[in-house]
C-alpha cells in the first residue's frame, strides 16, 4: 500500500521529530533534576559538618530519589527512541492510524503525579 500524499509531506516527519526531541528534552530534564537531588544530601552534609555545628543527619532518601529520577529519565529517553522509530516506520509504510492515545505519555504523567504526591507527603510529614 503506497503512502498517501499527506504521509509523504515532510511536515509530518518534522512534527514527529519535534515530538521526539521534546521527549528527549523531558528525559534529560529528569536526569538533571535527579542528579541535583542526589547531590543535595551531600551538600547538606558538607555545610552542616563545619564551624562547630553538629553534623546533619540524613536519611539517604535524596540519593535514592535522585537515582530513581535519573533512571526514569533514562527510561523516558529509551521509550522516545523506540516510539520515534516505530512512528517513522508506520508513517513510511502508510499503516499509521490517527487519533491513538500516547500510552507512554499517559504513563509518564501518572508516574510523575505519584512522585509529586509522594514528595508533597514527605515534605508535609517531615517538617
Automatic annotation (TrEMBL):
GO cellular component annotations of the record: plasma membrane
Principal cellular location given in the protein's record: membrane
A Pfam family it matches: DUF202
Keywords: Cell membrane, Membrane, Transmembrane, Transmembrane helix
Signal peptide residues on this chain, from the entry's feature table: none
Transmembrane intervals: 20-42, 63-85, 105-125
Membrane topology of this protein: Multi-pass membrane protein
Record has Acetylation as a keyword: no
Domain spans labelled DUF202: 11-87
Subcellular location: Cell membrane
Domain of life of the native organism: Bacteria
Name of this protein: Putative membrane protein
Organism name: Granulicella sibirica
Amino acid at each position: 500500500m503506497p503512502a498517501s500524499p499527506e504521509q509523504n509531506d515532510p511536515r509530518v516527519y518534522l512534527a514527529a521529530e519535534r515530538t521526539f526531541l521534546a521527549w528527549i528534552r523531558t528525559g534529560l530534564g529528569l536526569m538533571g533534576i535527579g542528579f541535583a537531588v542526589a547531590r543535595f544530601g551531600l551538600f547538606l552534609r558538607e555545610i552542616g559538618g563545619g564551624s562547630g555545628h553538629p553534623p546533619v543527619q540524613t536519611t539517604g532518601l535524596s540519593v535514592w530519589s535522585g537515582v530513581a529520577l535519573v533512571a526514569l529519565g533514562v527510561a523516558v529517553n529509551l521509550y522516545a527512541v523506540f516510539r520515534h522509530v516505530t512512528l517513522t516506520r508506520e508513517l513510511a509504510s502508510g499503516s499509521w492510524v490517527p487519533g491513538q492515545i500516547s500510552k507512554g505519555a499517559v504513563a509518564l504523567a501518572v508516574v510523575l503525579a505519584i512522585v509529586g504526591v509522594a514528595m508533597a507527603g514527605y515534605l508535609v510529614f517531615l517538617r
